[in-house]
Amino acid sequence: MLIKGTETMDSLVIAGRKFNSRLMVGTGKFSSNQAMQSAMEASGCEIVTVALRRVDINNPGDSMLQYIDRERYLLLPNTSGARDAEEAVRLARLACAAGCEPWIKLEITPDPYYLLPDPIETLKAAIILIKEGFNVLPYMPADPVLARHLEEAGCVTVMPLGAPIGTNRGMRTRDLINIIIEQANVPVVVDAGLGAPSHVAEAMEIGADAVLVNTALADTPNPALMGEAFKKGVEAGRMAYLAGLGPQRVKAQASSPLTGFLREE
Amino acid sequence: MSFFDLLQQHPAAELQQRFSQVETQDIDRALTRSKLSLDDFLCLLSPKISDSQIETLAGIAHRITSQRFGRTIQLYAPLYLSNECHNGCKYCGFSADNHDLRRKTLNDDEILREAEHLHRQGFRHILLLTGEAPEAAGVDFIEHVVRLLSNRFSSLSLEVFPMSREEYQRLVNAGVDGLTLYQETYDQVLYPDLHPYGPKSNFQFRLKGPERAGEAGLRRIGIGALLGLGDYLTDAFYTGLHARYLMKRFWRTQVTISFPRLRPAEGGFAPRSIVSDRQLTQLICALRLLAPDAGLVLSTRESAELRDNLLPLGITQMSAGSCTAPGGYEGDESDGEQFTISDHRTPAEICDILANRGYEAIWKDWDGAFTDQH
Fold first, then answer.
1. Which of B154, B293, B355 faces A112 most closely, judged by CB atoms?
2. Which pLDDT tens digit goes with each residue over A227-249?
3. How many domains would you assign to chain A?
4. How many CB pairs under 8 A join A and B?
5. Is the ipTM reported for this complex over the cut 0.95?
6. Does residue A238 form part of some domain?
7. Residues 6+ away with beta carbon under 8 Å from A99
8. Is residue A86 part of a domain?
């Protein structure tokens, strides 16, 4: 545990593995694989998530996988597109059989429009995959009770959404994420809806351990510059959290007390 | 409530009256909405839309699409299995009345050759098409073809005749994940004139096809009207109404919308109305605002130039290098086709155009491993 004030940045540890970056990056929606690569590089991320439905995981020459240096990044396959536990489990096994490390970002989103995670199926799949030896990182609604269940099942993180995927609406679930952070014994990664560096800074300021961003980096004419901006947002938020933010007050409080003279000797 | 019942609640005469009453300020108001009502959608389809309003509409459609789908276009190719058909659709090249057409249903070797051709070009999403002739290319045949191809492709969709829920279920179990079923026109009076005989003459059975497919668990359901057959404005409105109905009822299913349009005197058939490029653009953008998450599909029916221009305005899926005759990829392309295509560019050329315009071509966006049939 870092002692506050002794370092500016600390490491993120998930399932015993240490990461220097607290920003995870998704790989969808980019205008080209080069744009995706430039955003990844500039963001300083070390964990990159890839939708198994988008890649030919058995083919090392796959056009997208070629752009992800697996020496440098942890390739975190995700089950995006799965509608229930059975489908997600099947996909995870497929990735593992293809030689991926047994890490899986569990995404079960039966509704194709808001892509909201299914809490029941997610817990069901997590239990099966953890038994099979996977490190499971579940995308989940910002529900503190569900977070407890997923943690008890053995998930290595919990990944509540800030807002629906791709909406760029920021920390709409802030109050609930606050509770999850307060209660969690595994890293809390805010996963979706973060559309601006100020959003990720906000998540980190309140004590999230990491964030995951995709749309905001892909849906811009300059993914590399945005990647760098998010890197700085994450770092600024983490530093502020470590430094300790001052409490918010309703009334003004002068930096130099107005009645200090009364207490002067 | 079925969509047929919903359709009865929006009679064409009332819609036409409302279209005639739309004012400029109604369009302005609709352009400010974050969620469109059906009346807003109708206003955005209005012929009274000004150049500046259509520009605003296009800007909003572009922003929504870019945020929701990113700078990507998913590519697919049609594979025509058979052109045999018992229907007498007056506008279709496969019509039983077309005695000059050489009828053909591919055998396994021919299907595999065609499929291999598409696979070599990079396609992993294939749309299988037939006419409506159960003895030549019925449900058993389609199921057989799906099992024949499912290991080679990530996604197999169908554009065939409407089926029962049980038949759709069989094909889902075989590995089909998508369905396209155009109503052609939602005009119940005109429909029998255009489809005078054959199983397709049953308006309601066709209309309720997407609902049976949704009940059978199809993951993607595509709808559309063949624009120009009937009154353009009412068919456009009903298409949006249909999409919204399906999205609400089948919450696990992705709805896609296509906008095939008839060209003047196509196949000797005179369309009732000619839908202009401007109207088509307006419709695509209005549908994007009505259904921000729907897949919008543009085929090679449209010209290369128009397809390129429509690219940023809402389109999410495109066919490329298409041939509409069974056996046409490896054989004589012009023999036995359903309709003539306009965009003749190869898939590789389309990819280059996409890249030049800042879009990534997506060849694979699905995996048979989601289901255990592959």
1. B293
2. 999 999 999 999 999 998 887 77
3. 1
4. 75
5. no
6. yes
7. none
8. yes
